[in-house]
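Fresh eyes needed here. Have a critical look at this protein's tokenised backbone.
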Amino acid sequence: MTSPSDAPVAVVTGGSSGIGLAVTQALVGRGWRLISLSRSRGPQPVDVTWVPCDLTDLTSLQQGLARVTDLVDGGRVDGGLGDRGVDAVVHCAGLLRSAYLGSLDARDGAAMWAVHVRAAEVLVDRLAERLRDGGRVVLVGSRTMTGVAGKSQYAATKAALAALARSWASELAPRAITVNVVAPGPTRTAMLDDPARAATPPQVPPLGRLVEPGEVADLVLFLLQETGAMITGQTLVLCGGASLA
């Protein structure tokens, strides 16, 4: 049985709700030790090391990552001692603002870029040296990254993650570190209740229902385990057939 100090360590963003919470709960349930970056703790498991961080604010992000690196470099995660570094980085944090041409808000676009793209850049850049050889990076994108009416700014920021993943996959391949994007279709999370989405409600995919957060977490886990060792630089779409339209 894996002892606490030998358990794999993951750094997760957005772990307080939605897909990020599902990923956090799934990893803890499988014995991982977690450091979670999010604005609020929310219902995250009590044994998760929570680092308060607002990803829309660069200073807050840098301060949060300074705390993360202190935890990792000191070998102290959830009270356990060890120097194995980081086994996985999972960027789940998301922000959605919808708007059609003629009503685009540059502030909304900048906020989504900060959460989806800038946060990913700073996070992976800061932790790359601390990722163990054979480690994993997973970025949560979106099926809409191919382009959807009313979500151009959101789609553009999510599409950028695919370019980052392919570039980093090439850079990190000599260390057997894989980098992939998981791109869910409409998922049953609180984001669907966001007033900014009211004008563009999600369409039910051909398979007849929305994606569940736990199903996205299962795909992330697949990539984090040995089953994902030979998958890198890819975007895996989980959408119930929504991309067929």
